[in-house]
Specification:
There is one protein chain. By secondary structure, this protein is mainly α. Among the domains are: about 110 residues, Type II secretion system (T2SS), domain F (Receptor-associated Protein, Up-down Bundle); about 60 residues. The chain has 13 helices and no strands. It starts with a helix and ends with a helix.
């Protein structure tokens, strides 16, 4: 399966361009050669209860907001356009490399989908890892806040001192809320933004307790001690659920990897690759098997998902 020189040159240019764009994005974000969007402005804009005009393109606005939530949830202060370009460049690079190797549009399409999916998986893994760290830090932070309140500090002073002593990512989240308050945002609104930005039930409960105390008063130190005990109980519950479902999650991982590994093996054998990619029956069964595996993975993932 030879590639003519013109097609090879075009594909080489596409692959090189995708790789160059991907490298430029990485350099821009991790070496900070250009300023990023301020993180306070993005989430305050998303969560403040102010009337906003209807979007001219609802689908584009929904995609923009989903990408912003995904990247900020992963701890990356990227603009949604940068996240979209990262995913698109990953798909272009993977699809171009597959087409250069096997000279097949269907295989290139599958490679592009796999590349974009891999980029999305990277964001999801970073987001889940960050959420676990936030949940692990919350009980200790609630206890520290209770001790600070007992010592006579206000909520603003206690949050500032704890944000300076708490490591990332929770320290960064609390520091962001403190900066928003110093810029004139009401404390209750900053706390609501903190809970909405994280999308973690534990942190939302923590923020809600502080908001209720801010509005109604009461013994905040006692409430925070009870909150810390409840958060530790929820953490023990999650650990037990994860241990019970470990075998199921491992089986799901092997099932998800079996299909792509078999396809990769068949693509190295000319006979199998021709039957799979160059016949109508092979393409039909390839599409059916990919769809069924995707449905099965989504179903199993929904069964094993832990609501936190």
């Amino acid at each position: 399966m030879a590639i003519d020189p013109e097609t090879g040159a075009v594909l080489g240019f596409v692959v090189a361009g995708g790789l160059a764009a991907l490298l430029m994005l990485l350099v821009r974000q991790f070496i900070n050669l250009a300023p990023t969007v301020p993180d306070e402005q993005s989430w305050v804009r998303l969560r403040l209860e102010v009337p906003t005009p209807p979007a001219a393109h609802p689908a584009a606005e929904s995609l923009d907001r989903s990408l912003e939530q995904l990247t900020l949830g992963a701890g990356l202060n990227w603009h949604p356009l940068v996240s979209f370009l990262f995913i698109a460049c990953s798909g272009t690079l993977a699809g171009g490399l597959v087409f250069l190797r096997w000279d097949d549009p269907l295989a290139a399409g599958l490679g592009a989908i796999s590349g974009m999916s891999a980029a999305c998986v990277v964001f999801i893994v970073l987001r889940d890892r960050r959420r676990r760290k936030l949940r692990d830090q919350l009980p200790t932070t609630a206890e520290m806040l209770a001790r600070a309140v007992r010592a006579g500090e206000s909520i603003e002073q206690a949050l500032l001192s704890i944000a300076q002593r708490t490591p990332a990512p929770l320290g960064a989240e609390l520091g962001r809320a403190v900066r928003q308050v110093s810029l004139g945002l009401p404390v209750a609104t900053a706390l609501r933004v903190l809970g909405s930005r994280s999308r973690i039930v534990d942190l939302q409960l923590f923020a809600a307790a502080l908001v209720v105390h801010r509005q109604t008063g009461g013994q905040l130190a006692v409430a925070l001690d009870r909150m810390a005990a409840m958060l530790r109980a929820r953490a023990r519950y999650r650990q037990r659920i994860r241990s019970v479902t470990a075998s199921g999650r491992l089986a799901t991982l092997f099932t998800a990897a079996a299909g792509p590994l078999l396809i990769a093996y068949f693509m190295y054998d000319e006979k199998y690759a021709h039957s799979l990619f160059y016949t109508d029956g092979g393409r039909m069964w390839l599409a059916v098997s990919a769809g069924l595996e995707l449905v099965g993975l989504i179903w199993v993932a929904s069964l094993l998902r832990i609501e936190t």
